[in-house]
Design goal:
CATH class: Alpha Beta
Order of helices and strands: EHEEHEHEEE
Helix content: 10-25%
Strand content: 35-45%
Strand order of the largest sheet: 1-7-6-5-4-2-3
Radius of gyration: 14 Å
Mean pLDDT: 91
Low-confidence stretches: none
């Protein structure tokens, strides 16, 4: 997938930032569904990593349920998201190593900023990381 720019709605952006803020000590994670390349729904998934403060691992059962719901709604997988409570919004070495959906966008929310939360998007294909320009759509 060679994507250069994506738009996120204000609603989805707010949901992602809110999730990160209410769980500032652990990485939050989940999926975003889309229709016609427009992000439509956010599906939070429980982080079951052994060290959730520095790593994320999607709960398989919740991931399968979210993907089933997407399919039922006619959506496809748009992005996988997670937060970095104390690190920049860039993929860690472990994030890059453990990518299981290389054809999707990876959104990272950082709480490691001074008063302003940061969201950045990336493609990670065969351990090559490319940043995607993010913009917010009005709806």
């Amino acid at each position: 997938m060679k994507v250069k720019e994506v738009q996120l709605s204000r609603k989805i952006t707010t949901q992602l930032l809110h999730q990160a803020l209410i769980s500032p000590d652990q990485e939050i994670c989940g999926l975003i569904g889309c229709k016609k390349n427009l992000a439509t729904h956010c599906y939070p998934v429980r982080n079951i990593a052994e060290q959730p403060e520095i790593r994320f691992q999607l709960d398989e059962k919740q991931q399968i349920k979210a993907m089933s719901t997407m399919r039922d709604k006619g959506e496809s997988l748009f992005a996988i998201y997670h937060s970095h409570p104390s690190a920049p919004a860039t993929p860690s070495a472990m994030d890059i190593k453990l990518v299981s959906y290389p054809d999707t966008i990876h959104l990272i929310i950082s709480l490691n900023t001074k008063g302003v939360l940061e969201i950045r998007g990336f493609t990670i294909i065969e351990q090559a990381v490319e940043e995607i320009s993010l913009s917010m759509s009005p709806n």
